[in-house]
Amino acid sequence: MIVVNKRAGDIVQGDKTGDMPLSEVVKEYIKRKYNKPGKVYVGVAHRLDRPTTGIVVFAKTSKALPRLNKLFAEKKAEKTYWAIVKNPPPEQSANLVHWLKRNPKQNKSYAHSKEVTDSKKAILNYEIIKKLDSYFLLEVGLITGRHHQIRAQLSAIGSPIKGDLKYGFDRSNKDGSIHLHARSLSFIHPVKKEPLQFIAELPKDPVWNACC
Known about the structure:
This protein is of the alpha+beta class. It contains 4 helices and 10 strands; from the N terminus they run βαββαβββββαββα.
């Protein structure tokens, strides 16, 4: 496997934009680093939204990919995110449960307090871990992995993520990012059975800098 700290704006896998995805960048990196002839294999084990930063894991062999996919599908990987919000959540820490319904045309998910048609249950834990001058830093633990889950659920409680116009923040970030960062990832290596933990450095900007 290879673990990457994704920048805002990078797409993990190719889409209709035609922009070069991170998976292709990783292929080029592996080809150069190991001087590999011919085609290089890189499998996408999971994804991050384009404006989000942080940890992404890729498989370097076709044998590794289904093992990593299974790890994420069975929720055996512990994901922790950091999010910056202007409006603090109503509680210092809480477990949030919503039903998310995805609108593909808008590329957006809507959070409902009760189950609705075609919705999926979404669960996360959050804790306010730091108060900044104008913002609050939340640590978020994902229990389920739904489309735009953290963005939709935090917006639903009145705490949209900084820069996230789509989910109700009042202005965008200049670089098109949102202040949501896949901070850490822990799991047991599927072959070696050793515990692994990865922590991704924060992007360099004044607000993230204030979190350290």
